[in-house]
Design goal:
Strand content of chain B: over 45%
Structural class of chain B: mainly beta
Number of strands of chain A: 11
Helix content of chain B: under 10%
Radius of gyration of chain B: 13 Å
Order of helices and strands of chain A: EEEEEEEEEEE
Oligomer: heterodimer
Strand content of chain A: over 45%
Number of strands of chain B: 10
Shape of chain B: globular
Order of helices and strands of chain B: EEEEEEEEEE
Distance between the termini of chain A: 40 Å
Radius of gyration of chain A: 13 Å
Distance between the termini of chain B: 35 Å
Number of helices of chain B: 0
Largest sheet of chain B: 7 strands, mixed
Number of helices of chain A: 0
Chain lengths: 118, 108
């Protein structure tokens, strides 16, 4: 059974860097595309981007200048790094697996709330 | 960026009734790239329908999807108590992938 679990600080100071990790179990990370999605009451669900074990990444243009996504195959983890955060980055962050067959997200983490404080 | 507009924002129905949810895209989307999700409070979204009309594994057959081009529909034929929650459409016709704003199905 595939399981995804987000981890990282729940509180980040404004202008600093938000870093999250998603640990994948039950499947090798050397397959599929691994995504980050965030959710806020105001903007709803927002796709952040994906990373692939080959090094391929794709970012939402709205976040591209501040965003780095990566995969660590040795730990079966993938990560998000978002710099210069503001209150607008306060959200529940989900990691999710993209199914190329279904062209949808077929497996999600439970989500982690990240609050940006001033 | 393709904008997905869901309607209505809230649907008030009784158990056993039929629910029809709409998702309109700002430009034509391939049917293979349109999915529907259900999200319950405190949980991650769960895929219900992919490719506009294909039920994901384990999804009851009371859920069905249809549509093409810019207009898509999710139908719940007979609402069960556990179906009263929020539903989202999502496309990946091109980048960035986007979600609709959601429809809340509430108990009347």
């Amino acid at each position: 059974q595939v399981h995804l679990q987000e981890s990282g600080p729940g509180l980040v100071k404004s202008s600093e860097t938000l870093s999250l990790t998603c640990t994948v179990s039950g499947v090798s990370i050397s397959s599929h595309y691994w995504n980050w999605i965030r959710q806020t009451p105001g903007k709803g669900l927002e796709w952040i981007g994906f990373s692939h074990y080959t090094g391929r990444t794709m970012y939402n243009p709205s976040l591209k200048s501040r965003l780095t996504l990566s995969v660590d195959t040795s730990r079966n983890q993938f990560s998000l790094r978002l710099t210069s955060v503001t209150a607008a980055d306060t959200a529940v962050y989900f990691c999710a697996r993209w199914s190329s067959t279904w062209r949808s997200f077929d497996c999600w983490g439970q989500g982690t709330l990240v609050t940006v404080s001033s | 960026e393709i904008v997905l507009t869901q309607s209505p924002g809230t649907l008030s129905l009784s158990p056993g009734e039929r629910a029809t949810l709409f998702c309109r895209a700002s430009q034509s989307v391939s049917s293979s790239d349109l999915a529907w999700y259900q999200q319950k409070p405190g949980q991650a979204p769960k895929v219900l329908i992919y490719g506009a009309s294909n039920r994901a594994t384990g999804i009851p057959d009371r859920f069905s999807g249809s549509g093409s081009g810019t207009d898509f529909t999710l139908t719940i034929s007979r609402l069960e108590p556990e179906d009263f929650t929020v539903y989202y459409c999502q496309h990946y016709n091109n980048s960035p992938l986007t979600f609709g704003g959601g429809t809340k199905v509430e108990i009347k």
